[in-house]
């Protein structure tokens, strides 16, 4: 006889976790629950995106296809942004939001929100260029305690905090199934949306990432624009070596959440290094790097900007970018070693007025 195991829903899990903290007020639990609700609605709309495209292409709609296509694809980012902001505002546990989609912070001005103790930073629809080709996209969020006094409107300083100050962070991946993965600094747990009951159910408890994976993820099309250390590191990734399981497979979806999620579960390195065109890389410290770094570290991995722990970088601007290397610790350390080695050589050569020759970093 089969006994159906009781599934733990996200809400039940959040409540169980709250009970572990006798003095918890429940505000963070409510906030996480609000984010879970908003994610379900965005999931519903993301799943309809293909249908909207199909209607347009079969001519059911009368307006010009290109115009509507552009409009509708863009609308989904805007929709996700507006929906998350509206849910957080309505939930009253959030004093304000910083979004990748908005130039400035949004301070909630009602009495409850002014007295709330948390602020949320988010990228409501990351990888949005993938929507119209039906590739996985995601939402990334992070939660901080405000620094300003309760009762006041939140200020930019409330959002410009180091990643080490995060109270919680997570992502939602809208993939072959929709999942919500989050941490409050006590491990990482993953929940899969069961559409038949409309609930996120605990599917991946206590996620741990392997120390060494078989994958590296990078936009290799920029090879010639990367620093030399990274070019040589990529050469190292594809060399043969049994001990380090090389050559590693290159996997790059171009949706950070999807690339990270795969590597988190299976092991691997994700990187977005600086390029000659983008000296700080592309990804945003507050909306993308910090929340993902918190999750990766909580799963036992590493996250750096090539030199320093991502979580210890002091943000100075809301939309600041940072190079990022994160995932399985051994792979991140190796990338850092290549960077350091080539930077030292370049500095020495510059001091001696010499051009550099080929070098190797020990495997
Ligand atoms: P977006 O904010 O325009 O969606 O860009 C963010 C995305 C990440 O999800 C992904 O890792 C990266 O951009 C891919 O960039 P590139 O196409 O330069 O490799």
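^ Assign residues to that structure.
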């Amino acid at each position: 006889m089969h006994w159906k195991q009781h599934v733990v829903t996200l809400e039940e899990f959040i409540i169980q976790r709250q009970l572990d903290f006798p003095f918890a007020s429940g505000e963070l639990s409510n906030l996480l629950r609000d984010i879970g609700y908003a994610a379900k609605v965005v999931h519903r709309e993301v799943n309809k995106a293909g249908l909207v495209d199909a209607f347009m292409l079969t001519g059911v709609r009368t307006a010009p296809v290109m115009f509507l296509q552009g409009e509708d694809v863009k609308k989904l980012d805007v929709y996700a942004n507006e929906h998350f902001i509206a849910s957080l505002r309505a939930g009253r546990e959030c004093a304000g939001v910083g979004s990748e989609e908005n130039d400035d912070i949004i301070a909630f001005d009602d009495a409850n929100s002014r007295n709330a103790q948390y602020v949320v930073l988010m990228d409501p629809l990351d990888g949005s260029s993938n929507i119209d080709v039906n590739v996985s996209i995601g939402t990334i969020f992070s939660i901080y305690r405000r620094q300003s006094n309760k009762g006041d409107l939140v200020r930019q300083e409330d959002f410009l905090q180091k990643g080490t100050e995060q109270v919680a962070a997570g992502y939602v991946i809208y993939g072959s199934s929709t999942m919500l993965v989050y941490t409050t600094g006590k491990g990482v747990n993953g929940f899969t949306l069961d559409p038949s009951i409309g609930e996120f159910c605990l599917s991946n408890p206590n996620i741990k990432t392997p120390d060494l994976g078989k994958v590296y993820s990078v936009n290799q099309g920029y090879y010639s624009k990367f620093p030399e250390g990274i070019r040589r590191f990529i050469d190292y990734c594809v060399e043969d070596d049994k001990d380090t399981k090389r050559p590693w497979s290159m996997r790059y979806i171009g949706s950070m959440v999807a690339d990270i999620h795969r590597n988190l579960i299976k092991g691997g390195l994700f990187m977005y290094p600086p390029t000659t065109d983008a000296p700080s890389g592309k990804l945003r410290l507050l909306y993308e790097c910090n929340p993902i770094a918190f999750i990766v570290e909580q799963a036992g991995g590493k996250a750096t900007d090539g030199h320093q722990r991502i979580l210890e970088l002091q943000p100075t601007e809301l939309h600041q970018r940072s190079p990022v290397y994160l995932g399985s610790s051994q792979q991140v350390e190796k990338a850092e070693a290549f960077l350091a080695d080539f930077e030292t050589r370049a500095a020495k050569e510059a001091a001696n007025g010499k051009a550099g020759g080929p070098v190797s970093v020990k495997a």
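Residues 54-74 have pLDDT under 50 and may be disordered.
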